[in-house]
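Risk register update: the risk of archive-format incompatibility is retired. Evidence:
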Amino acid sequence: MEISLFAGLAGLFILLAVLVFTLLARRRQAKRRPPAGKTADKALEPEPGETDRLLHSYFKGLSYVLSNDTDRAVAEFIKVAQVNSATSEIYLALGQLFRKTGEIERAIRIHRNLLLRSSLPANIRLQTIFEIGLDYKQAGLIDRARQTFEELLDEAPTFVEALTELGSIYELCREWDKAIEVQKKLAALGDHESEHVLAHLTTEMAKEYELAGDWQRALKLYRRAIEIDPGCIDAWLHLGDLQLQQGQTTEAVAAWERGFAINPDLASLTVSRLAALPADQARASQEKFFQTNLQAYGGNVNFIAAYINFLIDEGKYAEAAGRIKEMLVRRPDCAALFQLTGRLVHVAAGHPECRDLLPLFFSRFQPVDKPYQCGNCGCYLEEVVWKCPKCAHWDTVAPR
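Archived output:
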């Protein structure tokens, strides 16, 4: 928040600087010309003494920015903007600042008042409508934000930012068919991430049909998502889940393993599914999975964490303890270590293999609050999600 706010103030500072120096230049030109010959643009011509007041507020606002006093900086910059009502870009920037500081009503008022100007350039008008949509969205007025973006796109169908915001609202409302149509439009406009997102949205739609009992439609959509993006882990995992419900165990296991191969850091999502198979199949499937992949992924701490859980289930406490000790040396900040050590000590407290494990654990372990983190924005999370709730990027969350 503070970084984006500073960036907003910096942008406003530049706009105001242009206004200040334009006014100063015109004042110097006016002094060199005789009054009768004046042809200056009245929209930018300052009244006597007005430029001095403008400069005073401008530099005062700048001093507040440098001292990190945002509220006073904004107040002074408002004075500068009010000197001349033709500076639409400055009012846009002010509205954005108010939105970032949480003063949504003031942001909406500034943006709506700007729309009342009859001489507003077309591009500024469209941008102003877009800003109003953002104001409504941040205020939690989702229906009004949605209506604003829809009306804007009726007028400007290729407004990419508006399409992106409208798509996020459709996702929020779980209107997957409309969100998919938005992504198709973004893809046609050259958005290279659209196919990746489109696969996730198609998967979400498939989940809705699966919950409603329409398994055939869900199966078709999971496969469609994989056709769109073969790297969509969520689609592979849920395809396997549905195949298992239909009695296709071999196909289900193959689909889960495809998901694992895409991102081994999420090995636990595959292993937990294998462990949930009927007892006579669960052990054999897990053992085969680990034997097949241990050599290739033995250096992946998240794969090894899943393997340690399997070793504990199998009663192989000595090997499990040895693996935990290796992790404590290699990755003492691995969030899974706490659960693994606690589980092993609980079930094998009397075994000599665990005797020196706890002292090593307490001397080496570096605890973390939340076990997952977004690789794009750094947001910490309690569980795996496919779309980061903070930066809205897909497939960026992984174990720490």
